């Protein structure tokens, strides 16, 4: 019935710096992180392909703390288990904790953030405050509270990390909802007389989700770190399960004699998180470049 | 300001309530949970019921719990047979030492990183970016392990564990401070570079200011604004990291207490640690909020 | 060399004597500035004599701002500056190092940018910003600086300078903070003031005040390099006008010549594209006559009755009524904070009115009957603005669409509207036929608005 056009009463922004095309020297840096993530996917789906048949749990005390070599590329640990196999199979524990915790946190965060952004002011205010309270507790201490009650274990660690990360997503979604609600196209839809539910589902939800893939990619990395930290403290998957944090915890008693027992799981965590972070940030730049 | 204090108190109240709710909602009998792995005698059970008022209506239990907290009574550890307040009081010193040293180290390093690399050539910026990526990708306990094997095991410069003397503080403070330096340094640098592109920077240069004076008098203050908004992350990293660092370096402190309490399922101590952490958060974020107001006059009115 | 120009011969302040007027303050020949291989200034020559006002006019991307900043050695990071001649105050600036440039900045030439809200450091007080210039060039000993800051604020017409010096830019009105920005630019008494879009973000009455202030500085002997996208803004003050397009000067000459008898087609197009009373009923882009159907006064499509809206205690729209007929354009003019945009949102039903009501004629069909335009062209270059306004006029002619057209720009409203509402502080102070209101304004506020509009008429 009526439509709105609106100009911003500002000067146009200065021309942005030209996008830098990768040079030949930078190309490896661009390719390595995605390639590593593919390798991780293989480790998750078919670990046997990468371990040459070695088993992560088979102990061989006679061959304990053997240095990396032909038989064991990453050496063996203090019980004589193959470190390569433990690192590869460990991806299952470490990464599933990160992915599951992030998935749970994103789901709950989106729902709560959307609810806050669309609610009347008092309810929004209450929800926003509860996000604040939740984020007052470092995830590690929140996890301690959860584990103290429920006992250690993978599921409890996932739950603890997810709860701690909800505010990150909920806050972003809430802010996005505010922006989208006031944006031209939602106003157009309102003036065209669309129903509230239709506007939420068709216009608001898809548009507030924009930053989520990026945040979640980086979030998985941070959840992997948090999970390995909890496992390091003995709250995650219980021995003899191969989890990277737990492996490091055991390995620190043998640092003087067998650097490899700590080195490879540490490298695995670091590379995983670094690659997720790099890929996430690259996605972020692409998103920001595309939306005006 | 009164509003700010009110919000802080509300957060503390909510944290206390959440801890209490967690205790009540946990599967199993509340008395069993409070006994945890400690000695289980009829006398202790009777004490617990009396202390927590478990024979009274739940609303009365809750209110008397809040009332005790208001008076600084954190309850009693039935495993250690001591007041929780006592347990924490003896351990708070080393933790405060560690976190303050780490915060100082982190902030100082971040400032140096930002000032040295802002607006500089590709190599320096690349190195700083790599360091920042490392600081968010390397788990804090791994930083500690690397520092230990390098400086304690290999070079023998610092003790492997304990809290005796300032030497014993160096590696833990570094392990806890490095991740902070990496992230904060990146944020500060980004803030500096953005500030240096603002129109007011052009105006200031057009007055004849040197770049150094421009950074010192104008840009640095702008760069602090995004840094101050990291309050929550900063506190979480410090407190959460303190637990891991204390365990790794065998330092006494609240982190060790918390770990033992969790392992021994000593709920009163765990709840008190949670509350203490919320208190630290509220204190730090209130202080940083005050700093924010001092830095940015636009949000005062 | 200098051009002859009527009234702007420098007198006392610049030192006097023929000698001075023959040595330009700044002179460049074949100036080229490029950023990473793309040249944004492509061989321009320009000279500014003491006491003279030179204006560079062009649309965004024309290279006018870069040219101005290059004269201060501030072309920006990654820039490459070349010129066959580049002298500042008689010295060869091509060999200047950072130290030489710094000595000139602020002292020899002061810079005034657009929008003091971001061009002054928002975290520092206005007084501190002005004092900085005094400190850098040590023009006033420290104990005297505070007094000098107050004198400067006073000299640019800031009332209550003691109070204002201690305030931050956001605490000042747009006009006052732009004056403060000018005070900081002239603090070290430079011979040249470079003003880059100094009035662009300002309301029309404030714009007139700032232009008057710059004219005063010129009368006091300072030379002025004025950069603007708006020919009308520079018309009243410039001695010479340079028209820039895509890094080149397409036309230059005495202001009167350029404005009254433009030689280059681009200058003519720029002048023709400025919407105004004279351009009513023509296509801006081509100047051709436009046939339009008269509004249909019997078919009312949108009406607001006694509308009001308040944010807290502040009534942003207060007892406003309007009607809009088929094929009609109702202009709404007013300065920032007058309640225009709130009115638009009330008209669209995006806001619930505190009181009053909005009646919309029911219409069946895919096309809107009413188009509400809220500052649709305010951020656009004049040529793009012309295209948008032509397009809106075409829509109206073809479909009989009614338009509620909100703008701070009186020229635009005069060009498009049939009737006009003049708003101030949420109320309508005057309304009527656009021709009537703008040529014979009755309300003092409307009179002030109309008087403040810069024109290209000479």
Automatic annotation (TrEMBL), chain A:
<feature type="transmembrane region" description="Helical">
    <location>
        <begin position="95"/>
        <end position="120"/>
    </location>
</feature>
<dbReference type="InterPro" id="IPR050366">
    <property type="entry name" value="BP-dependent_transpt_permease"/>
</dbReference>
<keyword id="KW-0472">Membrane</keyword>
<feature type="transmembrane region" description="Helical">
    <location>
        <begin position="140"/>
        <end position="164"/>
    </location>
</feature>
<keyword id="KW-0813">Transport</keyword>
<feature type="transmembrane region" description="Helical">
    <location>
        <begin position="204"/>
        <end position="225"/>
    </location>
</feature>
<keyword id="KW-1003">Cell membrane</keyword>
<dbReference type="GO" id="GO:0055085">
    <property type="term" value="P:transmembrane transport"/>
</dbReference>
<keyword id="KW-1133">Transmembrane helix</keyword>
<dbReference type="InterPro" id="IPR000515">
    <property type="entry name" value="MetI-like"/>
</dbReference>
<dbReference type="GO" id="GO:0005886">
    <property type="term" value="C:plasma membrane"/>
</dbReference>
<keyword id="KW-0812">Transmembrane</keyword>
<dbReference type="InterPro" id="IPR035906">
    <property type="entry name" value="MetI-like_sf"/>
</dbReference>
<feature type="transmembrane region" description="Helical">
    <location>
        <begin position="257"/>
        <end position="280"/>
    </location>
</feature>
<protein>
    <submittedName>
        <fullName>Peptide/nickel transport system permease protein</fullName>
    </submittedName>
</protein>
TrEMBL record, chain B:
<feature type="transmembrane region" description="Helical">
    <location>
        <begin position="130"/>
        <end position="157"/>
    </location>
</feature>
<keyword id="KW-0813">Transport</keyword>
<feature type="transmembrane region" description="Helical">
    <location>
        <begin position="98"/>
        <end position="118"/>
    </location>
</feature>
<keyword id="KW-0812">Transmembrane</keyword>
<keyword id="KW-0732">Signal</keyword>
<dbReference type="GO" id="GO:0005886">
    <property type="term" value="C:plasma membrane"/>
</dbReference>
<dbReference type="InterPro" id="IPR000515">
    <property type="entry name" value="MetI-like"/>
</dbReference>
<dbReference type="Pfam" id="PF00528">
    <property type="entry name" value="BPD_transp_1"/>
</dbReference>
<protein>
    <submittedName>
        <fullName>Peptide/nickel transport system permease protein</fullName>
    </submittedName>
</protein>
<feature type="signal peptide">
    <location>
        <begin position="1"/>
        <end position="21"/>
    </location>
</feature>
<feature type="domain" description="ABC transmembrane type-1">
    <location>
        <begin position="92"/>
        <end position="288"/>
    </location>
</feature>
<comment type="similarity">
    <text>Belongs to the binding-protein-dependent transport system permease family.</text>
</comment>
<dbReference type="InterPro" id="IPR035906">
    <property type="entry name" value="MetI-like_sf"/>
</dbReference>
<feature type="transmembrane region" description="Helical">
    <location>
        <begin position="224"/>
        <end position="249"/>
    </location>
</feature>
<keyword id="KW-1003">Cell membrane</keyword>
TrEMBL record, chain C:
<feature type="domain" description="ABC transporter">
    <location>
        <begin position="26"/>
        <end position="271"/>
    </location>
</feature>
<keyword id="KW-1003">Cell membrane</keyword>
<protein>
    <submittedName>
        <fullName>Peptide/nickel transport system ATP-binding protein</fullName>
    </submittedName>
</protein>
<keyword id="KW-0067">ATP-binding</keyword>
<keyword id="KW-0813">Transport</keyword>
<dbReference type="Pfam" id="PF00005">
    <property type="entry name" value="ABC_tran"/>
</dbReference>
<dbReference type="InterPro" id="IPR050388">
    <property type="entry name" value="ABC_Ni/Peptide_Import"/>
</dbReference>
<dbReference type="Pfam" id="PF08352">
    <property type="entry name" value="oligo_HPY"/>
</dbReference>
<comment type="similarity">
    <text>Belongs to the ABC transporter superfamily.</text>
</comment>
<dbReference type="GO" id="GO:0005886">
    <property type="term" value="C:plasma membrane"/>
</dbReference>
<dbReference type="InterPro" id="IPR013563">
    <property type="entry name" value="Oligopep_ABC_C"/>
</dbReference>
<feature type="domain" description="ABC transporter">
    <location>
        <begin position="302"/>
        <end position="450"/>
    </location>
</feature>
<dbReference type="InterPro" id="IPR003439">
    <property type="entry name" value="ABC_transporter-like_ATP-bd"/>
</dbReference>
<dbReference type="GO" id="GO:0016887">
    <property type="term" value="F:ATP hydrolysis activity"/>
</dbReference>
<keyword id="KW-0472">Membrane</keyword>
